[in-house]
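It is worth pausing here to work through a concrete case rather than discussing structure prediction in the abstract. The textbook approach is simple: state the sequence, then state the predicted structure, then interpret. We follow exactly that order.
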Amino acid sequence: MTSVCIEGKQPFPADEGPLGRIASRLTDVFGLGFGEHNWASLERAVSDAVSRSRAGSSAALADALCGAGGSGLLEELMESLTISESYFFRFPEQFAYLRDVALPERISYRRGQPLRALRAWSAGCACGEEAYSLALVLREVASELQDWRLAVLGSDVNSRYLQRAAAAQYSNWSLRGLGPDQRLAGFVAIDAGQWSVREEVVRLVSFRRENLAELRFPLAAEGTSGLDVLFCRNVFIYFSPELAARVAERLGRCLAPGGYAFFGPSDPLPLRMPGLEPAGSSAGLKVFRRTEERQAKPGVPAPRAAPAAAPAPPLPVPPAPSSQRLDLADLRRRARACANCADHAHTETWAGAWLAQEPRCPEALFLLGAACASLDRPGEAEARLRSALMLLPDFPMCRFALAELLAAQGRVEELRACLADLLRLLEGADDSQVLFGSDEVTAGWLRRVVAGRLARMQGAP
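Step two, the predicted structure:
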């Protein structure tokens, strides 16, 4: 086992036995860091897992965790090593800063933007209390704004937690920091000591499984780019310093210029976080602000079959009269702008109009397919993505979107073949090259993600 440690802790000596194999597996998959400070916790968790499972010994458990079909058991073990307990408006000082400083500033910034929206991500949301807290604050601050889009993404690595989050039902204990007026504003009493989040709040929030250790962000198609607010609290305490630095750099890139990142008071943050600096008047709150504009990266020339229009600033999305035939370049700009903002409904509208004028355009088919996937229409999404690939087989972002769709449907053999094709397609590409169909995904990043997934799938039935 490679020795890893949390910031300020001494590395624990390498252990090549069953416990070391299990620790290495947890580190590889979830990024958990182990040292002398938490080795006893791992020993207890493994002992409990052996008792619950049919493994019979830690060696047999290590074999099961490292083999095919061990992902569910590994997730259970990870859950026993992390703290999921949370409650609404935890660390209220941060939420006060969000309400009084960050959001008014973001509203002022967004007023001058063509697409008026406020978007937040709760990364490591556990059972959803933090994500719904964000939605409640967004709704409160933006109550007088007309025709603004409010959206909160909640993500966690634990699928069971996400099921509880989607149910949106909580006990008095989760609401323990709220007064009577706050409870009535955001919740409906459903039973003795049980509350349901109000439907108008639930509609603002979506949940998705996301393993931060995989570094699959930012991705506009998944709503993790161009964010106004990012909460990632009490997550870094579990990462090795090396992974923490990589995750922090990625999270910073998820924010729009001037966007705010909130971290946990106990999080051991990297000394350097490129693009982020402590926010003004936030001493001690661990609130950071994205200050640098996104730098232009060397891009990959668009494939010959792709449209050659130069990038342009995002345009507004007013409803156009059905008789109006918009300029093709205008449709392209609108579709791309909506996709970059993860506005899937309007992406579908404008990409569909684009496709009507340019029926054999791979990029329009790709954007339309990605939008359909996000709108939970997998059959239509797959048809669009496959049509794009028939027209332009060397389209990595489209093939990656198809792989995500196959993974969501559990189509393992097709997924394996799709990822293998994608990896071959990326061979020889420069690591820094930004891929066609994306404003920031590089060939090197996508190659690492695909290679890692294929390695984990090796030997799977």
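Step three, interpretation. Residues 1-13, 294-324 have pLDDT under 50 and may be disordered. Strands lie at 117-123, 149-156, 169-171, 187-191, 194-197, 205-209, 227-232, 255-263, 276-278, 287-290.
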